[in-house]
Amino acid sequence: VQLQASGGGLVQPGGSLRLSCAASVDSFRAYVIAWFRQAPGKEREFVSAINRDRRSFNADSVKGRFTISRDTAKNTVYLQMNSLKPEDTAVYYCAADRQIIMSSYSRPDAYDHWGRGTLVTVSS
After folding, report:
1. DSSP per residue, 14-72
2. Do 51 and 34 contact (CB within 8 A), yes or no?
């Protein structure tokens, strides 16, 4: 499984970005795909996940601002980020796993496959 995250960049507070996670894998729809982020000096933290049934799960810190979606035809998961805040600044990673259970969606150690991160900087 290969994951390629893209779409990061510099944006002003209140702005928007859309991150993409393209997966090179068979049976893409069988995988749970998640986004995590890691700010300098901090631990990697859960942001959002989408499962096989397209049900989404979001961290409290991003509820109402971030939306995760998946396009099975393109083997891609998107993270639409609106109303960005400086505290959203981090390297964002996408992760995938086929065997993960719902209670583990927010745990980085529960995912077997990771892509390289994409940097999001929210600053004026």
Report:
1. T--EEEEEEEE-TTGGGSEEEEEEE-TTS--EEEEEE-TT--EEE-GGGTTTEEEEEET
2. no
pLDDT below 70 — which residues of the chain?
A: none
Q: Residue 81: helix, strand or coil by DSSP?
A: strand
pLDDT tens profile 53-76: 999 999 999 999 999 999 999 999
Q: Residue 110: helix, strand or coil by DSSP?
A: helix
C-beta separation of 49 from 68 below 8 A: yes
Q: Phi then psi for 102, rounded to 5 degrees? A: -60, -40
